[in-house]
Structures are given as C-alpha cells and as structure tokens.
C-alpha cells in the first residue's frame, strides 16, 4: 500500500497544481479582459448553461456522484492502510511505547551475521514476524554454518527487547573465495 500511496500522492499533487494554474490563468484573463464572453481555456458560460439544466434526479449526475464518493473512499482507505511498518519493543516504563523499523533490525542482524569468520557476505530482511538471512559462505564452510548463523541471530534477538520474537529463516549459499 505504501508503494501505491507513493505513486498516487505525486500524481494527485500534479493534478491539483495543474488545476490551480488553470484557475489562476482564467482569473487573470477575466481581470484583464472583463467583457470577454468566454473563458481563456475553459468555456465557463457554456458549462454554466449546461449545469443549470441538470438536476440531481438525472442518471448521469447520480452515477458521477457515486463514482466520486467511491474514489474518495478508496483514496482514504489507501491512506489509512499505508501505515509505516514498525516492530514493537518493550518500553522502559508501562506508559512508554517504543518501536523500531524493520531496516534497523535487519542492520543489527546483518552486522552480527557478517561478524562470523566463515561468512563472506549476507543480506537480511526483517519484519515483525520474520527475519530472513541469506548468507554467502566461503567454499570451505561446512554444513553446520547454517546452525551457527541461526544461533547467532537467535542470541541477538534474545538480547533485544522485542515484544514478540520473530521467526528466523537462514539460508547459506556457497561462494568461491580467493585462492
């Protein structure tokens, strides 16, 4: 949802800015030429005559109103669901709420994993429920390296004041090292 919000926000901003520029141009044109019968870019008098004949009982008006209401509700829903992902921590006192971002947790875990001598590199993704570690091991690393990495990550997660401990998934890939 955050990606959708990041795409929609600039598009709606550009559309509103364009509408604002259009209104400013029309107002300036009306001030400069007060007797002009039509707008500069928009035929306002024609639109006004058309809108004076339209009532709320006509089918297109009700359909347009329902469409605009649904679009507004969808935008509001996207905005409400696009919350920032946070990982709750236990606070130092009962009334204090402490959170961290998944990126910070992934950095902690990544530093701990990369600190192992047998690891050439690692990529870590973290969320509230899961920490996924993909470690690249040198070619002489044994099969017990996966358990070693998992133990280091579990040790770190036990040291952190997390409210709920995420599930740890570790995969180890072999990487050719310098000869």
Structural descriptors:
179 residues, alpha+beta, Alpha-Beta Plaits, 3-stranded mixed β-sheet, two-stranded antiparallel ribbon, 5 strands, 18% strand
Explain what this protein looks like in three dimensions.
The protein has 179 residues and is α+β, with helices and mostly antiparallel strands. It folds into two domains: 2-81, no CATH class; 98-175, Cation efflux protein, cytoplasmic domain (Alpha-Beta Plaits), CATH 3.30.70.1350. 51% of the residues lie in helices and 18% in strands. Strand 3 and strand 4 (130-138) form a beta hairpin. Keywords: Membrane, Transmembrane, Transmembrane helix.
Number of helices: 5
Order of helices and strands: HHHEEHEEHE
Uncertain spans = none
Beta-sheet strand percentage?
15-25%
Q: What is the domain total for the residues?
A: 2
Mean of all residue-level pLDDT scores: 88
Instruction: Describe the strand arrangement of the main beta sheet, using strand numbers.
Output: 3-4-5
Provide a short characterization of the protein structure.
By secondary structure, the chain is of the alpha+beta class. The protein has helices spanning 2-32, 44-53, 59-81, 102-114, 145-159, and strands at 87-89, 98-100, 119-126, 130-138, 167-175.
């Amino acid at each position: 949802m955050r990606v959708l919000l990041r795409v929609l926000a600039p598009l709606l901003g550009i559309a509103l800015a364009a509408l604002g520029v259009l209104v400013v141009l029309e107002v300036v044109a009306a001030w400069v030429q007060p007797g002009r019968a039509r707008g500069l870019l928009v035929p306002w008098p024609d639109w006004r005559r058309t809108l004076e004949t339209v009532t709320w009982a006509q089918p297109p008006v009700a359909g347009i109103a329902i469409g605009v209401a649904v679009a507004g509700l969808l935008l509001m829903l996207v905005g409400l669901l696009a919350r920032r992902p946070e990982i709750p921590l236990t606070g130092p006192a009962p009334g204090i709420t402490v959170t961290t971002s998944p990126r910070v947790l992934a950095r902690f875990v990544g530093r701990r994993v990369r600190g192992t001598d047998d690891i050439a590199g690692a990529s870590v993704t973290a969320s509230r429920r899961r920490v996924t570690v993909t470690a690249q091991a040198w070619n002489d690393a044994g099969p017990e390296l996966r358990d070693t990495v998992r133990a280091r990550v579990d040790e770190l997660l036990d040291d952190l004041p997390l409210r709920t401990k995420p599930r740890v998934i570790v995969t180890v890939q072999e990487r050719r090292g310098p000869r």
